[in-house]
Amino acid sequence: MTELHHNLINGEWVGGDGVDNINPSNTSEVVGVYARASVEDTLNAIAAAKAAFPAWSRSGILQRWEILSKTAHEIFARKQELGELLSREEGKTLAEGIGEVTRAGQIFEFFAGEALRLSGESVPSVRPGVGVEMTREPIGVVGIITPWNFPIAIPAWKMAPALCYGNTVVIKPADLVPGCTWAIVDILQRAGLPKGVLNLVMGKGSVVGQTMLDSKDIAAMTFTGSVNTGRRVAEASVKVMRKFQLEMGGKNPTIVLDDADLKVAVESVAQSAFFSTGQRCTATSRVIVTEGIHDAFVDALCERTKNLRVGDALSKETEIGPVVDAGQLKQDMDYIDIGQKEGAKLRVGGQRLNRETEGFYLQPALFTEVHNNMRIAREEIFGPVAAVIRVKNYEEALEIANDTEFGLSAGIVTTSLKYATHFKRNAEAGMVMVNVPTAGVDFHVPFGGRKGSSYGPKEQGKYAAEFFTQVKTAYTAAG
């Protein structure tokens, strides 16, 4: 029998009804069995985190550094094993899986260092004989709800700063991919975290997530996922006056100008739109191309797209793994049908594929003759589906790029310093890419968007302190 992976509550592994974690590359394979937490389990986890907060919030910075460093080192040592787990449960290629695990290790290593760099500020008061100190303190219990598309990196970039700055944690991973979060929590616990500091509650959002949202004992909530769920997180958090942070959808544009290097443009768009099966909030889904290069670019991108090797995530030959599950595959196929009914031309791809094992395989789809008012150009599909929009010039391209309710990532491919500089200033997105894919980001700098994509302080790097700490100002009279 497959071992049951338990929830972690107050330092103890607690059982529950198990659910199979299915490999999307081979639906007959069970990756593992993971317990689902109940309402009572979730309340116990929150209570444990609350009880552990006073001691952990005053713990020494060397203790935090050591725990986070040990975690980073074990992740690096096990990157092959953990990369395979990630690829088996989510469907990324093995190279992408190992890359994501490596990034998780780098995040823990970075915040281990941040634990030693905690600082404040001291300034003279406007009143003689009085000093002023500004310091950052932990918030309390941090609730973390993570998505399925980055099952190890996103939990890492939320847990690491939360713990670094002295908060306690209750984390709920996506019910679809609990394995990677379970593995990281296990590593952290064995690295020496005191009981109750970190609690893992796996299961349904309607049970575990809702119980977290309803709790007045969770002082801050950080969420990455769909727009609709993000709005529910916001509404519930306002009711109890908690701090909250949201990372949600995207409909990211890449502009390709006439002066672009064609090879750079094609590879940038192919990677942005289709790698990781297009299941990234930073993926390019709108490709806005000026008239002079449009036909040559489309022909080259069609050739690149139809030759992408779709297959089992663990195969060395695979470039694009399966869609994560049947529900997401149906959503992708529905949008491919919608695009054709709207009058867009499906130039390549969009078909279900059969492979040696039963899985959720889809040939990446490329549409042309798309207008920005079509649903495939306005709604987030979250799959390997890209739409090409023809425009006259840079000015029209920028207008269309900004004509969206989202604002996460935006890219441009050009050899013009003039246009690159203008775009960096005028693109309405939290992250701007020039001649690089929209989906590639670093772990030590801010991550986040604008408009309907994000709410609250940015994630990652030293900017994470803005969310995971609160500022205190202290006045002291001399003598």
Description:
With 479 residues, this protein is α/β, with parallel strands linked by helices. The protein has 2 domains: 4-248 and 453-477, 3-Layer(aba) Sandwich (Aldehyde Dehydrogenase, Chain A, domain 1); 252-434, Aldehyde Dehydrogenase, Chain A, domain 2, CATH 3.40.309. Helix content is 40%, strand content 23%. It has 15 helices and 23 strands. Strands 15-16-17-14-13-19-20 form a 7-stranded mixed sheet, with helices on both faces. A 6-stranded mixed sheet has the order 10-9-8-11-12-22, sandwiched between helices. It has a 3-stranded mixed sheet with strand order 1-5-4, with helices on one face. α5 (153-164) links the parallel β8 (141-145) and β9. α9 crosses α10 (291-306). The longest helix has 23 residues, at 94-116. It is globular, with a radius of gyration of 23 Å.
Q: How would you state the average pLDDT, rounded?
A: 97
Low-confidence sequence ranges: none
Shape: globular
Major sheet attributes: 7 strands, mixed
Count of helical regions: 15
Helix content: 25-40%
Please report the total strand number as a whole number: 23
- Tell me what the CATH architecture of the largest domain is: 3-Layer(aba) Sandwich
Q: What's the Cα radius of gyration?
A: 23 Å
Give the tally of structural domains: 2
- What class do helices, strands and sheet pairing give? alpha/beta
CATH topology-level name of the largest domain: Aldehyde Dehydrogenase, Chain A, domain 1
How far is the N terminus from the C terminus?
70 Å
The largest beta-sheet arranges its strands as 15-16-17-14-13-19-20
Q: What is the assigned CATH homologous superfamily of the largest domain?
A: Aldehyde Dehydrogenase, Chain A, domain 1
What's the CATH class label of the largest domain? Alpha Beta
Strand fraction: 15-25%
